[in-house]
Design goal:
By secondary structure, this protein is an alpha+beta fold. It has helices at about 65-75, 100-115, 120-130, 175-180, 190-195, 200-205, 215-220, 220-230, 255-265; strands at about 1-20, 25-45, 50-55, 80-90, 145, 150-155, 165-170, 235-240, 245-250, 270-275. The chain contains 9 helices and 10 strands. Helix 1 packs across helix 3 (about 120-130). About 45% of the residues are buried. The structure holds 4-diphosphocytidyl-2-C-methyl-D-erythritol (CDM) and adenosine-5'-triphosphate. 4-diphosphocytidyl-2-C-methyl-D-erythritol binds next to strand 1, strand 2 and helix 4.
Length: about 280
Amino acid sequence: MKVNSYAKINLSLDVLGLREDGYHNIDTVMNLIDLHDIMDINRNSTYELNLSSNNPDFPTDKTNLICKLFENLKKFREINCGYDVFVDKQIPISAGLAGGSSNACEFLMYVNDDLSLNLSDQEIKEICRLTGADTFYFTNKKCVRAKGIGNEFVRLSDFSNKNIIIVNNGMSISSKDVYDNLKESNGGLGKVSVAIDSRDYETFYREAFNTMESVSEKLVEEISIIKEQLYELGANLALMSGSGPTVFGIFENYNDFENCYNKLKDKYKYVFKTKTL
Ligand SMILES: C[C@](O)(CO)[C@H](O)COP(=O)(O)OP(=O)(O)OC[C@H]1O[C@@H](n2ccc(N)nc2=O)[C@H](O)[C@@H]1O
Ligand SMILES: Nc1ncnc2c1ncn2[C@@H]1O[C@H](COP(=O)(O)OP(=O)(O)OP(=O)(O)O)[C@@H](O)[C@H]1O
């Protein structure tokens, strides 16, 4: 059975401070984009999870978040089967797009339905929390302001059908490394979330920010260059997503959107034309 597993972008992101559990409280606005993996999930008669992918960098051992999810699910329900999962990987890995978290969540939703597990919302939230901070967002899939570790949502007005250029130079950044090196907070996303919710996009484009850029740009210097190029080519907003290194550009003007893609598509390893969902 084929399932689409979408990527997310952070339309803004602030890290508020360290929690007692070693995670950080964040304040972020998240939205899906149409860039997605295609997961082919089929039950097998073993108790094993067999993972495979077209991407050689896709981990097929227990470090895969799909495996981690499956082990966490077994803490809540007895599972008397295994699954073969092939992932046609289109989302760049370790990119700030939460591809692994998306895969894990879509797998949970599939198994919950396939085996009629009838997991409660609280059980789903806890299984996702044990798997990774971004995982629970993919049960929601709307434009949300997320707080806590990133799994407490307030719904905002839809931000769908915006033209998005995704640029990634093929480098990878560990979220943990960025969190561990962050010093300052900007006091949260008050203005940004109000602007998005009231569809005041001029204010949103002006006020949007990602606190993690200050650390990630030191790890991958091209991030700031890509942002400049997106603005020079007409982006209304250019911002790093998550802990990076992916940078996205939002284009209200369709001709600028097309021109930007044509100018950048041969310059970087991953350049995608997509849209917000
Ligand atoms: C940067 C974001 O993409 C923004 O959406 C996410 O916060 C990243 O979430 P994620 O990659 O799912 O994070 P996890 O895989 O759960 O955690 C990886 C490491 O990142 C750090 N981490 C993650 C999320 C968070 N709210 N605070 C943290 O400090 C922790 O050191 C953790 O050990
Ligand atoms: N199903 C998966 N797909 C892609 N990467 C995975 C998966 N499972 C585990 N990983 C590993 O998890 C790490 C994070 O991968 P992912 O692509 O989710 O990063 P990310 O997009 O930066 O996530 P986030 O935005 O949450 O930080 C990588 O080291 C990758 O090897």
